[in-house]
Amino acid sequence: MQTSLNTILLYAKNMQATAGFYQKYFGFISTGEVVEGLIELKSQNGGANILIHQAAKSIKLGQVGVKLMFDVEDIEKFKKESAAQGLEFGSTHQANGYSFANVKDPDKNSVTISSRAYRNRN
């Protein structure tokens, strides 16, 4: 049986703020309505969708167990456009033929933009 990863569930202290973050900076589509305890964010580009779930008080957010990585062909351009909207990424790092930069979402989850998926395209 084959499987595929189509949905990522994120716990949030403020569901609306977290949903807004991914809508504003990463282009997800959502009504913002809480249905069955979740806010559903749909990817516009065929990637995984995100479900935002209210975090229980006992959940420690911002741990390094998960990092969301978004494929971005031009890291510097994306960083500049994001900064104009109020999102400041950290330094751009160089790796084996690609670059990446990091930021935190409102719940301190790690988020990366990376050109790794584009490194072999010439």
Put the structure in a nutshell.
Helix content is 18%, strand content 28%.
Characterise this structure.
By secondary structure, the chain is of the alpha/beta class. Helix content is 18%, strand content 28%. The chain has helices spanning 15-26, 75-84, and strands at 7-12, 38-41, 49-54, 67-71, 93-94, 99-104, 110-114. The chain has a four-stranded mixed beta sheet with strand order 4-7-6-5, with no helix packed on it. The chain has a three-stranded mixed beta sheet with strand order 1-3-2, covered by helices on one side. Strand 2 and strand 3 (49-54) form a beta hairpin. The longest helix is centred in the first third of the chain and has 12 residues, at 15-26. The radius of gyration is 15 Å and the shape is globular. The mean pLDDT is 89.
Sequence-ordered SSE layout with sheet pairings:
Elements: E1 7-12, H1 15-26, E2 38-41, E3 49-54, E4 67-71, H2 75-84, E5 93-94, E6 99-104, E7 110-114
Parallel strand pairs: 1-3, 4-7
Antiparallel strand pairs: 2-3, 5-6, 6-7
Number of helices: 2
- Give a short account of the largest sheet: 4 strands, mixed
Percent in helix:
10-25%
Q: Indicate the proportion of strand residues.
A: 25-35%
Shape: globular
Strand order of the largest sheet: 4-7-6-5
Strand segment count: 7
SSE run: EHEEEHEEE
Give Rg in angstroms. 15 Å
Distance between the termini: 35 Å
- Given helix and strand content, the structural type is alpha/beta
Q: Indicate the low-confidence ranges by residue numbers.
A: none
Mean pLDDT: 89
